Amino acid sequence: MASFEQFVLKVKPTLDMFLRVPHKEHLERLRYELLQFNFREMKIFHVQILAPLVLKLEELNGVNQDLMSCVLDCIRIVMSKLYIDDVQELRTLLVIVLKQIRESGATKVRPNLSEELKLVSVQCIGEALRRSSSDVLEIFYTSESVVLLGQILLSLVEFIENENYRKLVISSLECLMIIFYVHDEAEFTDVVLRNQVANTVFIYIPKIVTILIKTSLADEKLGETLKSTAIKALGRILCVIFEKSDDVLIEHNYDKKEFKSLINKALQQKSEPHKSDFEMASHTKRREGIEQLLEEMRSSGRTKQWFEETSRALRAVYTRASVFRSHDSVRIRTEYARMCCTLMERCAYNLGENYLNLLENVVAMSEDEDKHISKMCTTTLSQLQLLGNANESLFDEYADILFDEHLAKMPRIISRSIDAEQYAELISLKGFLKNLSISRMNCLLLVPKNLEMLCRCLISAVDLKLYRDLLTEEYAIREVVLADYAESAKLGWRQYKHLSSARCVSLVKDICVILGNTKGINRLVYDFLLELLTQNHETMNEIFLIMLWIGTGVERRKHMNYAELVEILLEEILDEKHWHLALRPDASWRLKVDKPTDWFVDKTPGLYESAIEIRTQNVDSDDENDFNEVNKSQRVTILDAEFNVLHTCIALDVLGHCATYYGDRFDRYIFRCLHKVLLKVSCSNTMVYQAANFCLVSIQKALKFAEVTHLIETHTDYLNYHLNTILKRSPESHAAVDILTVVLQLSTRRALPHLENIFQTIYNECSKSQQSENINAYLRVFNAFLKHVARWQATSNAEVAAIPMQIEQAQEEDLLQDWLDLLEKPSTFIENEEANVEGETNSKTPTDSTEDVEMNEMKTEEFEAAQEGEDVKPPLPRYIQMVKDIITQVLKFVSFADKTHQILALECLISCVPLLHDYEDELLPLVHLMWSPLVEKFRNNDAVVLNRCFTLLNVLATHAKEFILKRSLDDVIPSLKEFLRKASKTSTTETIAAHTQEYKLQLILLENFANLIACLQIDGKHVYEIAETISLYLAKEQPCELQELAVQFYLKLHQYNGPLSYITVLKKAHIGSYKDNAEKVLTNIFKSCI
Fold first, then answer.
1. Which residue among 122, 579, 877, 1025 sits deepest, i.e. has the most Cβ atoms within 10 Å of its Cβ?
2. At 1066, phi and psi to the nearest 5?
3. Where is the TTI1 C-terminal TPR domain (predicted)?
4. What b/e string do you get for 383-416 counting C-beta neighbours within 10 Å, with b at 16 or more?
5. How far is 345 from 242, CA to CA, in rounded Å?
6. Rounded distance between C-alpha atoms, residue 429 and residue 441, angstroms
């Protein structure tokens, strides 16, 4: 259909219908037809449409805002499909649209306007200006339009500042860019028009810039799109206002002399106090004064004085906007980087003192993590010839001033702990150092004051936090489990006091890498830090970190002696003073830890009575004496212990990273460090153990061993030497015992012969009656040896099982063949044999009979001798004899008062019993010896000890079977039933916020009681009473974990005694609180019977 026919048949009737009956449905129909109509072919028709709509809009003004919004939307559609080539038409449209939202001469927008009306009005204004030709805009942007543009700008600013409708705010920002001719479709090369626009609307800059910076710095809940649009508008508007209009200056490429003059000018203006028109216009004044000021500014235009004063006033804006270079959003950082780069490229001549601020931002963002931002800023710096000479940069002449500014404000920024500020400052310092020439950096840091300030700023940035978790220790024997490198490299002890984000830590590390890769500077910084270390400086942990990053930051290909700094660091870190620090506080004088305490009261087991008992516990008089006798300088307070633990972790951390950096050349240090690392692996402190784990895995990775066990076995001779040296120097040494404990856990059976003599020495030391301080260490060694034997035994059994038993099969085949051959012999052969036997019997003489009697007597004597030989037991294997010796040695520690001794001794016994499973004659006498101390421990009410006692009882039942049946029923089972009965009342009334020791004991009893019954073959009333007691845990009031274990108990018991399990649960099935779990048990029993 032709455009004329479409207009006549579609658009015109719909328009007339709306004009006659102004209804929303008619207007929607008109909107649809306008979207379909092609205005490009018949441009004359837009007048026929716009004029009636504008007149109708005047009639509807203030009557129906919905219809007004729809009419304005139709006007917007028409304008979007044509170009306005008449300035009077443009001005008329702007006035009519503005009238809908603002009274003429009013200071504010009309009240009670709908958001839809505001939005479509803003869109109409923007569309009218966007679709105007450049010729029309050149005529429009004159002094005659200042008032109209001012009314529009004030309306837009009011919408941006006050409205919550996000789409309206974004549309207002886009319309603002259209008015300043800086929208995406504008001709940025049209210098004349841009200059004319700037000369017309520059007087409104104070209010506009204030609102834009306020919006861009507003809360993050506004959204990334709105904030980035505000930054985009701010940058483009400032650019068009401060852009120099002279063609010569625009085409000219600044050389270094001109930029140096700009920096000199900026440095001079920075310290001068000022009072600008911008500031005066921002203050509240009388209306006449403001109008007079605006008139003067309009008449004088953008003079050199105006640029200088406005630049001074904008200093606060540029300073506040600097935080955007550290924003989390890549989109916001990109817009801000583009703003800074554009202003430096196009407006450098008019920036004044703000040039340095923008230059600092561009340099900082040239190191941004986003490649696009980094490339944009680097390109800008290159274009401005800041890096024109490889040996000298523009920074060099002003390095002192810029460096002093950074170091002066950096400590305050770091201590405030605001991540955005820290990132902005650190990335600026990184960019500054990276763009500084090597010669100038050397001159700068040769000044002692500058070197000290830089080092102290870096040290304060990585200030490590001391916290109570550093003193967390493992009570029981820890089995060394080495994680992979990625898992162990989490470095949980590196918790910084001021830096809260990984990106800031990475920037500090990058700064150290820059210093490390600068020849001469790296050694200068190292010497200063080593001097601080010699003074036992309180920041030695932070110093080690800085030295590590500087030393390992040196590129290997860049320097032949790349490992020189790391060698210095290793020599320092391997000094003995860093490896023998007290890791536990010893200031707990007023309350002895070895006093007997009862953690359970019959009425209400729990923590309350324990707390009362501790609070009412008497203080011995000798405590006061001990407290006064100890020299205060020798005490290890909690704070000292935390520092020592952290320092030990940092030492291991640094050693591990140095090993990784060194690679296979690190084997030269393995003799000096391996035993130190293994000693820390055995430490009960959790954090030190993790750090030692990381260090050991790093050494393994550096030396290219497949597993840590290979590393240990390869250097067993080194370890043997150190262990013998330590034991000769001090036979009761705790360190040697701890190292041996780890070696036993981390080595295979091939390393055992090398360590047998050392183990025997430790065993002999443990046998001495005066030994008391190192009992825990000896017990840990025994436990490690037992676990080592258990692993060796399991490995050997697996290897034997994998070998096919071909010999036994061959022997069976040979035996079968012999029987077949015998059965196939002919009968004649048998008869001949019988005849020969008879002949020999008849031919015997009395002499022969006497000889036969003598021969029979000799054979009888030989047989009896052989029988006596069989009664002699074969010698036990060496490892079984050592297990027996350990049991006899450990048994006496079960009865000690110290709880730690008891726990370690019980764990050793738990590991011993399974190893003697194949040697019943050795096992049962030892079980008899164990029983009395074990029963004594069962009478103790300490849940931690009872936990191990029941585990040992379960192991004894598994391997000794009925041998301990009667003893168990008489001595142990009654107390366990009584405990479960009483504890069931507590667990139903208390909420288990954390797993207490009592609760853990309930768990282990419910989980293993079924196995105990089956192994001991308990029957009769005893098993009935046990089943009745555990049925209390089927109640829904019990914790879910206990309920589930009770259900599993009856399912296991059903396999041993099905009727009893069924009857016991069935009796509880009719009780409401037991019904669910009882049905669950009975259902599973029925399924197993089908």
1. 122
2. -65, -35
3. 781-1057
4. ebbbbeeeeebbbbebbeebbebbbeebeebbee
5. 11
6. 13
Cα dihedral across residues 276, 279, 285, 286: positive or negative: positive
Burial 875-887 (b: 16+ CB within 10 A, else e): eeeebbebbbebb
Question: What residue type is assigned to position 732 of the chain?
Answer: E
Determine the average pLDDT of the residues in 821-839.
51
pLDDT in tens, 148-164: 888 889 899 999 988 88
Residue in this structure with the two tokens 């049925």, named with its chain if needed: 1031
Region 954-959: mean pLDDT is 88
The closest of 995, 991, 928 to 956, measured between CA atoms, is 928
- Tokens representing 224 are 């990334």
Cβ pair 523, 572 in contact under 8 A: no
Task: Report the 3 state secondary structure along 143-173.
Answer: HHHHHHHHHHHHHHHHHHHHCCCHHHHHHHH
Q: What are phi and psi of 631, to 5 degrees?
A: -65, 135
Distance between CA 1077 and CA 154 in Å, rounded?
Answer: 74
Residue 435 CA to residue 1054 CA, distance in Å, equals 79
**b/e string for 667-701 if b means 16 or more Cβ within 10 A?**
eebbeebbbbbbbbbbbbbbbbbbbbbbbbbbbbb
- How would you class 867 by CB atoms within 10 Å of its CB: exposed for 0-12, middle for 13-18, buried for 19 or more? exposed
Output the pLDDT for position 232.
92
Place of tokens 């918790």: 495
Answer yes or no: is pLDDT of 395 > 60.
no
pLDDT of residue 431: 83
Q: Exposed e or buried b for every residue in 704-726, given b needs 16+ CB within 10 A?
A: ebeebbebbbebbeebbebbeeb
Residue 901's nearest CA partner among 914, 887, 912, 890 is 890
266-277 burial, b at 16+ Cβ within 10 Å, e below that, comes to beebbeeeeebb
In tens, the pLDDT along 699-757 reads 988 888 888 888 888 887 788 788 777 766 766 567 777 787 777 777 766 656 655 66
Candidates 321, 316, 296, 318; CA nearest to 306 is 296
Q: From CA 496, how far away is CA 493, in angstroms rounded?
A: 9
Residue 206 has a pLDDT of 87
What pLDDT does residue 170 have?
92
Contacts of 943 (CB under 8 A, 6+ apart): 599, 600, 996, 997, 998, 1000, 1001
Distance, in Å, from the CA atom of 502 to the CA atom of 496, rounded to the nearest integer, reads 10
Band of residue 845 on the pLDDT scale cut at 50, 70, 90: very low
Length of the chain: 1090
Q: In 3-state terms, what secondary structure has residue 130? A: helix
221 neighbors 275 (Cβ within 8 angstroms): no
Contact 923, 805 (CB under 8 A): no
CB 1016 within 8 A of CB 976: no
pTM of the model: 0.62
pLDDT value at residue 33:
73
| Distances 456 to 224, 447, 453, 482 between C-alpha atoms, Å | 37, 14, 5, 37
Average of per-residue pLDDT across 325-336: 88
